Amino acid sequence: MYTFKIIKLLDENKIKEVQRLLDSCKRPSDWVNGNDTFKGAEGTKSNVELYNPMALKKIREIVINACSKCEEYNNFTIPKSYTGCIVNKTSEGGYYNTHIDCAEVGDFSTTVFLSEKDSYEGGELSLFINGREENLKLNPGYCVVYPTGIPHRVKKVTSGDRYAFVFWVKCIIRDSTILDCYRELKSIKFDETPIEYQETMEEGLNDIKFKIDNTVNRLMRRFGEFAD
After folding, report:
1. Residue 175 CA to chain centroid, in angstroms?
2. For residue 142, which of 176, 175, 114, 179 has the smallest C-alpha distance?
């Protein structure tokens, strides 16, 4: 059973490109109070969100394109679609109290860390898992992916600025047990030696790689929800 996963999503060039975009958003009008887009109780969070449409669009393109090319991310989430696009900035004194993301946004929440770890103090992302907090503060370009229903919070930032990109994924396979089976099958490693010509159909049908691929596809056909 996989509860959450940490994945390196952006390479150094993409991280620098995102950070340059963030550095260019210095006008007050580039940001909006995070509470303006929040439906919960007042005071639950204290941060700002990127409002510059060009920068927001470009950052989203960079991150989602990286997701689409990341086998580890795709095997974990099996994305049908991506929803939401929030770049948040949490400065000194800012925080986000314990909450859960709305069910309608998706099945998996993803937080991509965008700031250098030593550029701010505090600001850990805390996930409530198996009765205790898991505190995460990752290098820029790394993301943490977790089921959308997990309670979580961002601890108070005591100095500096914490930047993060947040979005959600709707998963093709909704049943958690079947999803775990899919992941286990996809995680099996094989000898990379190319297979030789198979003289008979039976030889192909008995090949272990074929059996696993066939089982994965049967799971997808039976349990996959492909239509939006």
Report:
1. 19
2. 114
